[in-house]
Write the structure tokens for this entry.
Amino acid sequence: MSQVQPTTADRYQRQTLLPQIGPSGQRRLAQAKVLVLGCGALGSVIAEQLVRAGVGSLTIADRDIVETSNLQRQVLFDEDDAQAGTPKAIAAAKRLARVNSTVRVRPLVVDVHSRNIERVVDVHGSERPDVILDGSDNAETRYLLNDLAVKHALPWVYGACVGTEGRVMTILPGDGPCLRCIFPSPPAPGELPTCDTVGVLGSAAAVVASLQVAAALRLLLEGRSGDVRLTALDVWTGRFYTVDVREARRPECRCCGAHGLDFLDAPAPPATTLCGRGTVQLRPVCQGDGLTLSVVADRLRSAGAVAVSEYVVRCALHSPAGVSLSVFPDGRVLVHGVADESAARSLSAKLLGT
């Protein structure tokens, strides 16, 4: 007996009962294009809720692979993904295809930086999103995204979470404050707690991500007419604080006032320490045609246990103990088990010549 496929009306029946959405709103969502930048604790919840809500097209851009430490809070991944070291964007897309096959999910295994963000977002092309949701785990990427959004008038939803606390804000370039109107400069190293120093509660990330999704759906359905609010919360104490910030735009703002795109115009740093663990990402110095993973695998076999997929080569090194490498076709290298950038660069140069 053939399986009966659910209709669109069946799938979204509870959602279309909402007066804020209705059948016409559901049709608008089916035409929407959304980009999620980062697919960790925030991004994985965001992506799942958007796919279940029925957005037409979802692009997921993430640079990392799934590890066991992710499973406490990153809801799209399982132990098999961690064991295989699957790129998060790929694992997320496979999972989401089983959740809602009617949504087009486009995974991008990519490190987003100043040299490529306009290409990743496809600001002038057919994949240009209606809204971008911030699932990143670092201030550098958020301020870069803010520059891009101001330059190209792209709405985005900021989200951040550490410990049991979080913040959410919708940013509408030209119709309200940008990120730098509220937070003029990124925090200095060590100035604020991070997931490295205080951890993160999975339920806090889920609440922040849910608020981001609600803000994005409202934007897709109602346009730019709604409130622009900054919400701060602590799920442990149950305290929420929301303020309307539409009038908080500053004429002297370095970004949206003076049109200084400091982060978009800056060169990408050659190395970055990833949040939450001892891993350093090394970017390729030169942009070429990429690497042949089979060649990389052969080169690393004498140094440790090698596993190869179409997306990444992983090598658990014999020495130093507890250190491993993940090498991507674009030339990026993740050095796991090393927190010092110079040590990571030295190890990569020794083993890969990069």
